Fold this sequence. Notes:
The structure holds 2 protein chains of 2 kinds. Chain A is mostly beta strands. Chain A has strands at residues 3-6, 11-14, 19-21, 23-26, 32-38, 44-50, 56-59, 62-65, 75-77, 86-93, 100-102, 106-111. Chain A is globular, with a radius of gyration of 13 Å. By secondary structure, chain B is mainly β. Helix content of chain B is 0%, strand content 53%. The interface between A and B is medium-sized, with 25 and 21 residues.
Amino acid sequence: GDSVTQMEGPVTLSEEAFLTINCTYTATGYPSLFWYVQYPGEGLQLLLKATKADDKGSNKGFEATYRKETTSFHLEKGSVQVSDSAVYFCALSTNTGNQFYFGTGTSLTVIP
Amino acid sequence: GAVVSQHPSWVICKSGTSVKIECRSLDFQATTMFWYRQFPKQSLMLMATSNEGSKATYEQGVEKDKFLINHASLTLSTLTVTSAHPEDSSFYICSARLGGHTGELFFGEGSRLTVL
């Protein structure tokens, strides 16, 4: 079945460090891929998305490229800030239904 | 952009009572809304899919008589936790989708339920 496998955390980085959070997926058809972020005590909000192969989603300095050949959608940021501390969820949506599949979430803590 | 609003944000209740959580799509019509439950430091667990004008579709293992879902209009879905017990304490999040299978899910702010 369709699923998302996400790098387990927690991840702790110093400010201005480079961030990578790995995400791979299994899906039939042509899914859309998403990264959501959850700040402490809040709901989820969309960070970025890509709807077809080779698309790059970007927002707030974060980027992720939809790689069909490796079935991956890794999240990257060149220089993290303390305010980026949050839980990050990778997700996919198939084109055959109304279902979203979420990864387990990766907790990121950025220290000054 | 599209907004989903959830109310209340926090609720504390006594064991055995029922609690209702509302989820509203503020600037779009949502024929389908989703209810998730999130345990501390864990991912989202889909509980049910709420369909406007018809019965909700529950995920395996979710008690439909325990978690009553009503989707009476295109902008409102409600989740009622009936006869709540301490193990029902959790963070409940609703969402609605805009734009077909490439569209994103918009999430409510979440409702933290504590059952004493």
